[in-house]
Protein: ABC transporter ATP-binding protein
Amino acid sequence: MSTPLLKIEGLRAAYGAIEALRGVDVEIHAGEIVTLIGANGAGKSTLLMSMCGKPKPTAGRILLDGQDITGLPTHRIMRMGVAQSPEGRRIFPRMTVLENLRMGAVVTDPAFFDEDLERAFAMFPRLKERQHQRGGTLSGGEQQMLAIARALMSRPRLLLLDEPSLGLAPIIVRQIFQVIREINASQGMTVFLVEQNAYHALKLAHRGYVLAGGRVQMSGSSADLLGNEEVRAAYLEGGH
Structure:
């Protein structure tokens, strides 16, 4: 078995006296889409944020391609090939779409910018139409597209997506999940997807982890988790 692109070992993280992660273990191999599902407050977003340096883990290790990145500053982690589309989009609202995409590209060789911009516009034609519009004036779906495109402009080896479907209309969710599927298939992009919409996440991913109370309670292939009675009862609306 090859070295995992991402290996998380016994990770613990806290906000003051509240321990949000209580010894999490996750492995992701290059080319996989892996999803992390769980209820609100399970620690899903905390895990992604800890991987990016904040909050710093209190115990455990995060290995990227075998190299320990635990607690490194965020900018160094980004330069090593990790990009995040955070929960709540967090685009730069006063900047135009084009300026936001330029911000995503600051860690890469400028020679790639035009090529990567065309790829982003091909994935999300709406962004091309809106390229001179301020980010804050876009719809929620358009802002989510921009957040993902901005992350991809850094040419990451590992793309972290935190709740990309949150608050969006079903038709926009389907479009965004289709783009994730396509970049994985065509570019071999490795994706770690945190999602509350367990059904869509497991349909998209190759494998999944179930997080509850800051611990991994279950893991397996997406097909196995979709068919698991406990998962269906807890996260798939009673199995329907």
User: Anything to note?
Assistant: The beta strands are 6-15, 18-28, 33-37, 59-64, 67-68, 82-85, 158-162, 190-195, 207-212, 215-221. The chain has a mean pLDDT of 93. The two ends are 36 Å apart (CA to CA). The chain has two domains: 1-81+156-240, 84-155.
